Amino acid sequence: MNAEKRRQIFERLKQANPHPTTELEYTTPFELLIAVILSAQATDVSVNKATRKLYPVANTPQAIHALGVDGLIPYIQTIGLYKTKAKNVIETCRLLMERHGGQVPRDRESLQALPGVGRKTANVVLNTAFGVAAMAVDTHIFRVSNRTGIAPGKNVDAVEAKLMKLVPADYLMDAHHWLILHGRYTCTARSPQCWNCLIADLCEYSSKTPRPAKGV
Q: N or C, which end of the chain has less CB nearby within 10 Å?
């Protein structure tokens, strides 16, 4: 895919959604961090249902740590892998208090040192909470990047590196959200909605997909 096509794709995504953001509900960087940890192999909808009950009761490292694993589990047990996530969240709260004064660190190395925080989670927090140009490549972004031809790669690290290099600078801050939302609602895994896609004419996959004959 050439640079002009890539620019047109992001310009259209921007026009359709000028101010994209995560669908996880949060009011502070800490709430976002915990929500993203909980969202691993889970839907944003399921995480939001849990945090709507949890955050009015405890939404700081001190308050959640005070719950302990057993106290946290009832709030998040509807989310997959909740036992492991409960342990990670409580330990993360402890480390935030001990190492960072109860604040969420603003650098990737410190974030990834927290339990349950990998590169993708760190990138979400850096981008969404702190306004850092970062690309959190999940299954949606990986699929869209490869299928459309925007930034094909064999693994998430390769796709992340290509996106950071190839996405035009003035779109880089929001590209992460546009690609996730496009993959979640339009460029879906099993049945991509090419007929309802605003970048179909620029997409390498769509251009190779046979069109039904007129009248069919």
A: C
Position 114 pLDDT exceeds 50: yes
pLDDT at 91: 98
Residue ranges of E strands in the chain: none
Which residue bears the tokens 């004419």? 201
Q: Answer yes or no: is pLDDT of 158 > 70.
A: yes
Instruction: Tell me the pLDDT tens digit for each residue of 82-97.
Output: 999 999 999 999 999 9
> Mind telling me the catalytic residues?
120, 138
Task: Find out whether 159 and 137 touch, Cβ atoms under 8 Å.
Answer: yes
Burial of 135 (0-12, 13-18, 19+ CB in 10 A): buried
Q: Which of 58, 205, 212, 78 is nearest to 146 (CA)?
A: 205
CB burial class (10 A; 0-12, 13-18, 19+) of residue 179? Answer: buried
> Are the CB atoms for 35 and 26 separated by under 8 Å?
yes
Name the nearest CA neighbour of 9 among 147, 148, 142.
Answer: 148
Residue 77's CB is within 10 A of a number of other CB atoms, namely 12
pTM exceeding the 0.70 threshold for the entire prediction: yes
